[in-house]
Amino acid sequence: MLKSSEIAALRKLDAQMRKDLGPAEVSLDVIEFKDVLAAGGPAAQRGSSLRKSRANCHGSRARMTLTNRHPLVRIEPAEPNTLKIGSPGATLRFTVSPDAYYPVGISFLLLEGVAKPDDQARLGLLNFDQSQIRRLDHVLYVTDTFNDEIPYDRYKFSVIIQRARDGALGIIDPDIVHES
Fold it and tell me: Which of 42, 2, 76 has its CA nearest to residue 158?
């Protein structure tokens, strides 16, 4: 359990990051929660093929919206589950709602771009520095450094969420596209 002074310090850091970095404010509104660890749940149903898992996503459903205009980040109506980010990248401030859900982590997987990616490229470690990810209450900060060698990459990202009443875990899994 965090001390009140630690919580106050995190809230101050959150306010400072919002002021200094000018993050893209991304809202993830949970519509349907699915426990990935439940017997017979989404984790047990996923096939080994990435293409099959993308076509038959069994994760939690959420509506993703930008709550403020940002010069480098957008969501197009034709692709409501895809964040499009321009060079040189941006800090993303994901807010999960309603209050019954908390973000607990995020992962990335390269879907298109590099022909034969190594682990660093495949897992998005070049563009999304895991040590810089910050979480506070319902907010998760991620900075996309846009270190691509080519002008286009598409990532699947998965925001891991936890339901407060029972600790169940769910996954929200939209895409990120790097545009030049």
Answer: 42
